Amino acid sequence: MIESKFIYILLVIVAGVSVTFQNSINGALASKTSTVFSVFWVFLIGTLIIIPYLFISKTPFPTIQNLKEIPFHYYLGAITGLIYVALVMISIPKLGVAYTTALLIVSQIVISLVIDRFGLLGAEVKYITIDKIMGSILMIIGVYYIGK
Could you say which residues form the signal peptide (predicted)? Predict the structure, then answer.
């Protein structure tokens, strides 16, 4: 088990770089085909890759009873993922990769503060501090200048 926070910070950075490449590639694909085809392609390829991995890794499948016990809103990630991929594909050709990414980051930070503050979706309640508000305002200002 990895104990160091550094490893997790590094993993998040790699994920951030990966999603930025993903956004750029998906936006380009959508501009050459269509948003609907591109979204289909992204999820098809993802499905084709994860299926063999499930079997190779011997990941246990939940039972029907386990699935019934999971709160409904836990299943909405697939829908929000679909919305995310489609809307980014539509936006990148019009706004560019940098501005789209900046808008994504700021919107994620603002909504994550709300989720934390009210303990939504099972999150632990965390209070919004003046530092978090100031950091968010500075990021919003940064997005404004990136979009100019």
Answer: none
Same domain, 31 and 89: yes
Residue-wise pLDDT tens digits, 72-123? 888 898 899 999 999 999 999 999 999 999 999 999 999 999 999 999 988 8
pLDDT band at 9 (very low <50, low <70, confident <90, very high): confident
DSSP, residue by residue, the chain: ----HHHHHHHHHHHHHHHHHHHHHHHHHHHHS-HHHHHHHHHHHHHHHHHHHHHHTTPPPPPHHHHHHS-GGGGGHHHHHHHHHHHHHHHHHHH-HHHHHHHHHHHHHHHHHHHHHHTGGGPPP-PPPHHHHHHHHHHHHHHHHHH-
Our count of domains for the chain comes to: 2
What pTM does this model have? 0.80
78 and 51, same structural domain? yes
3 lies in which domain range?
A: 1-94
Whether 13 has a pLDDT exceeding 60, the answer reads: yes
